[in-house]
């Protein structure tokens, strides 16, 4: 009995039930009842007298900030994995935007990397000299022409020739993984729409207007032999 009284019998000492994960903290005496506590790796979830214990939490992969005690649960270190995910997402987004900008800038450079072209003056009607560009059948020379051009340059050229955008997109989709075939088919569309007459002159002048001087020069060299032969036959 833990206080003065007039009772004729004493109280029985309470047990610490191991099935409830309790153990004896202080043994029972004639003036004090048994004091129980939670076993190791267990804690009491009640602020008053403890009747049963709960297992301590485990901090997997994050570490322990404060160990479990008989009266408090384990405190785990804060997990900042979501911050890492956000940082990784931002890095990936920046890398994607940078890659897109670089690709776009590279394509624009491929189209506009030439120095300004000298203006080609057509001879006046009073001159006796023949025209600079004679009509050449380009149909058999299209693969050689597009060989010296990039896909962005070909697209820039056919757009200047007012080829409808749906026709351009459909051609690109039809030959999705073959840029060479895309260039050839786009040129065929333009050539079929334009026709042979004046096509060679239109091609070279348009390329120079698009500031693709080096491309125009390479194509002229490739077709120079054919042009010279046609002019000889004409004379």
Automatic annotation (TrEMBL):
GO terms for cellular component: CD95 death-inducing signaling complex; external side of plasma membrane; membrane raft. Its main location: membrane. Disulfide bonds join 38-53. This is Tumor necrosis factor receptor superfamily member 6. The keyword Ubl conjugation does not apply. It is a single-pass type I membrane protein. Keywords: Apoptosis, Calmodulin-binding, Cell membrane, Disulfide bond, Glycoprotein, Lipoprotein, Membrane, Palmitate, Repeat, Signal, Transmembrane, Transmembrane helix. It comes from Chelydra serpentina. It comes from the Eukaryota. Pfam families: Death, TNFR_c6. Residues 37-76 form the TNFR-Cys domain. InterPro entries: DEATH-like_dom_sf, Death_dom, Fas_rcpt, TNFR/NGFR_Cys_rich_reg. It is found in: Cell membrane; Membrane raft. The keyword Ribosomal protein does not apply.
């Amino acid at each position: 009995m833990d206080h003065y009284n007039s009772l004729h019998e004493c109280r029985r000492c309470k047990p610490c039930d191991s099935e409830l994960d309790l153990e004896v903290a202080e043994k029972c005496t004639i003036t004090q009842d048994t004091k129980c506590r939670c076993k190791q790796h267990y804690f009491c979830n009640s602020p008053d007298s403890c009747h049963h214990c709960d297992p301590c939490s485990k901090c997997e992969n994050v570490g322990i900030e404060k160990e479990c005690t008989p009266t408090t649960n384990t405190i785990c270190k804060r997990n900042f994995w979501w911050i890492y995910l956000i940082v990784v997402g931002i890095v990936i987004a920046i890398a994607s935007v940078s890659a897109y900008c670089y690709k776009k800038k590279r394509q624009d450079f491929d189209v506009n990397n030439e120095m300004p072209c000298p203006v080609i003056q057509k001879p006046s009607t009073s001159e006796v000299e023949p025209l600079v560009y004679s009509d050449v059948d380009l149909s058999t020379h299209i693969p050689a022409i597009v060989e010296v051009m990039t896909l962005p340059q070909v697209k820039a050229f056919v757009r200047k020739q007012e080829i409808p955008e749906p026709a351009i997109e459909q051609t690109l989709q039809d030959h999705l993984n073959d840029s060479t075939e895309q260039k050839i088919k786009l040129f065929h569309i333009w050539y079929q729409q334009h026709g042979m007459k004046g096509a060679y002159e239109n091609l070279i002048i348009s390329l120079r207007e698009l500031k693709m001087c080096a491309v125009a020069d390479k194509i002229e060299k490739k077709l120079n032999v054919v042009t010279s032969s046609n002019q000889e036959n004409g004379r």
